C-alpha cells in the first residue's frame, strides 16, 4: 500500500543500505526519533525484513527504508538481493515509487574490506545503475568510537582509502556519488537526509530492468553479478573438496587417524558451504525457470487452441458438406425411395449396421406421425415428392451418417460422404439418364443436361449403384481418362 502523503508537504523516500553491523538501524532510529526501530549490537543481523519508517521533517514526509544487510548472518546474499529487488520493483510497478536517494552505510571499524564487502559493493553498483549514483551518499559510522579510542587518525586513513581506491567507492564517486559522516547525533543524521530531499527521484537500474524490461532477477545486471560470484565459489569449493579428499586418502595410508578426522571435519564444512552456494544459485534461477515454464505452457495452450479451432472448422465443413449432400438426395429422391434403396442393399453391411439402419428409419417414421405436416408449396417437389418427404429424407440421412458412417451408407447405395465431384458426376448421370428415358418432373436435371450440351451423350459412366469404389470414366471421343477421387469417410 502506498504511504499517505502529508498535506502541504512532499513525500521523500530514502533507502538505507549496507552490510550487517554498519549502523543502518541506528541511523534510522536517530534520524526519525522513533524508539521502535530495533537496533542490533555487534555484527549480528537485527533487520530481517524491509521496513519503512515515516517521520515529518521541515514540511516533508520522510520515509527511511531499513533493509537487511547484504552479508546477512542468517541469509545468503542471493536471498537478500532477491528481497530488496522484488520490494523495489513492486513499489515502482504498483505505486510508481521512486527513491530520492540511497544512504549506503559503512562502519570504519569493519575489517572485512575484501571478499564479501567488495562483492556487495559491486552488486550495489549494478543495483543502482550509473545515473542514479548522483542520489547516493556513502556514509561512514564509528567516528565517536574512534575518538574515544584515540584512533581518529586511523579512521581518517580508512575513509581516505575508501574514497580513493578503485576497488571501493572511487568509481562511484566519479559518477556523482557523495560521502558523509554520521556523528551519532540527530543533527548529523538530518543533515545527510537534507542533502537528498531536494534531489529529483530516480528509477534504479534494478527497477527499470525488472519492471520496464520485465527481466528475471538473474538476467539483471545485479543478478548476473551475484550469479558470476556463485559460479566462482562453486569451482573453488569443488577444488578444495577434491584436495581435502586426496589428503584424507594419504592420511589413511599413513594411518594418521587424528589428521584424517580433522580433514573429514574440513571436508564436511566445505560441503555444507557448497550446498548453501548451490541453493543460492537455485533461488536465483527459480524465476527464470518459472518464466520458461509459463512460456512453454502458454505456447502449448496456443497450439491446442489452434488445433481445436482447426478441428472445429473441419467438423463444421464436414457437417455442411454432409448436409448439402443430404439435401441433394432429399431434393432428388422420395423418403420411401431412400428406404427401398437401403433395404435392397442392407445385406452388404454388418449386422449391427443393419440394426442401426432400421432403427433410424423407424425413428424418422415415428417422428413424422407426431409432427404436423407442412403445407406443400405450389409447384414444389419436382422429383422430390413434397416438402415433408424431402425433410424426412434429409433427417434420415443426417441421422445415419454419424451412426453407421459414410462407408456403410455408400455400401447400400447412398454415398453421402463421397467427394463432391464424384457426387456431382453421379447426379448429372442420373439427370441425363432420366432425360434420355423421357421422364417428367426432373426440370432441374433437364436444365443441367442442356448446359452440358451434346457432351453428355458421349460420356460413359461407371455403375456406382453396384460398385461404389469405381473411379475411372472414359470420354470415348477424346480417349482421355480421368479419375474421380472418392472421400474415404471419417
From TrEMBL:
SUPFAM superfamilies, alphabetized: P-loop containing nucleoside triphosphate hydrolases (SSF52540)
InterPro entries linked: GTP-bd, P-loop_NTPase
Family annotation (CDD domains): Ras_like_GTPase
Stretches for region Disordered: 366-393, 438-490
Compositional bias of kind Low complexity: 463-478
Pfam families: MMR_HSR1
Protein name, entry field: G domain-containing protein
Organism in which the protein naturally occurs: Cladophialophora carrionii
